[in-house]
Structures are given as C-alpha cells and as structure tokens.
Amino acid sequence: MCRELNILRPQRKVNSSYPRKLARNRMITNSNQLFETDIKYGYIAGEDRFFFIQSCLDVYDRSVVAYHIGLRCEAKDVIRTLQTALFKRQLFEV
User: Fold this and answer.
1) 35: Cβ–Cβ under 8 A, 6 or more apart, which residues?
2) Distance CA 37, CA 78 (A)
3) pLDDT averaged over 10-residue windows placed end to end, the chain, 94 residues
4) Does residue 34 contact residue 14 with C-beta atoms inside 8 Å?
5) H/E/C letters for each residue in the chain?
6) pLDDT value at position 18?
7) How many CA atoms does the CB half-sphere of 38 hold within 13 Å?
8) Alpha carbon distance 21, 33 (integer Å)
9) What is the pLDDT of residue 8?
10) 27: which strand partners?
C-alpha cells in the first residue's frame, strides 16, 4: 500500500565488499609469506568451563596450518603452535 501511495523512502544501496582483499598493507604473492593467528573460545556447559582454539592460518591460501585446542591458551601454547606451523611448512628446524 505504501508503494502504491509512493510514500516509501528510497532504499539504501549496500556496497558489496567482495572480493575481499586480505593483507592490504602487504603484497602476498605465494604461500608461507604471511601467517595470521586467531584465538576463539567456547563454553562447556556440563563442566562449567571454557575451552580455547588457537589456529595459525596461511594468508595466501587461507588454510589452517596448525592449531591448539585446550582448556588454557597461554603464550607458551601460542609459541608451540607457531613452531608447529613453521615446522610443517619446512621453515623451522628443531
């Protein structure tokens, strides 16, 4: 009815942000050039506890290289995850 009476306000146009550009301040041309890390947490209802998931991503192909799942996520866990990611991609020696 509002359309028939021509009393509707013009709809705003949503600008699409896709394709999304990652790492805008760097030029990534190949895999293993830039890693990102992300920490998420969830809640275990039956045990009244939180758990953490820390993942290490390769920005070029958006693949998860290494991850840590546990009841804690401390600096030593993040370091170990990053070392595992570098070791898997043969960029780090033990």
Assistant:
1) 56, 57, 58, 59, 65, 82, 85
2) 9
3) 78 70 74 92 92 94 94 95 93 74
4) no
5) CHHHHCCCCCCCCCCCCCCCCCCCCCCCCCCCCCEEEEEEEEEECCCCEEEEEEEEEECCCCEEEEEEEECCCCHHHHHHHHHHHHHHCCCCCC
6) 63
7) 10
8) 16
9) 77
10) none
